[in-house]
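Sequence in, structure out. Go.
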Amino acid sequence: MKKPIVLTLSLIFLLCITGCLYLFVFGSPFSRKPVIEQPKSTTQEVDRITYLMNELGAYKLHKNTITSELPVIEVYVGGNIYNTIVENNVPMTYIGKPEYADLQIVMDTNTLFNITVSENVSEQIVLSLSENRVSINVLCDKKDLLLKGYNGIYANLLKETSLITGKAIEHVDILKFQPMDIFFIILLFTIALIIEHYLS
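Output:
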């Protein structure tokens, strides 16, 4: 009788640990969305990008749980290069190419303008992806994306599933995480905790 009880308790414990890791390692469930005013016609491009990233859910991103590396998104608009860094759940955009980046988003100036004046940014992003006016490229290992909380952006885009067709499916799916990705991260994180325990 003891074996089934021990097995059941072990499974419950594992599920609790997995749930906590998913919430607090892969996401930021209690992060508050910063208030960033919607751009006007005269708003600078750099500020439009910050607004766009905030609406996409970049405020849910956080440091890599293992390496402490900050989330960085490289954005190409026309011939200009920008980089958005998320620190303490606040996205800030700067002019220039970053030293490293997790994602690369490419679009033209008119597309950026139309998306940022829209009532529904996620919807416009997905429509632009479908029409090949926006592209999203992963620049790092997908496990690093998971450890920085990029699944939050994926979830935001999935809200517009009825609009996801053609090219948009390809671009949105590159942010999709497979069960093996999550299992590997949980295993890696558990090993790191065990090593830290024995070294302390």
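Check: The two ends are 37 Å apart (CA to CA). Strands lie at 72-77, 80-87, 90-95, 103-107, 134-138.
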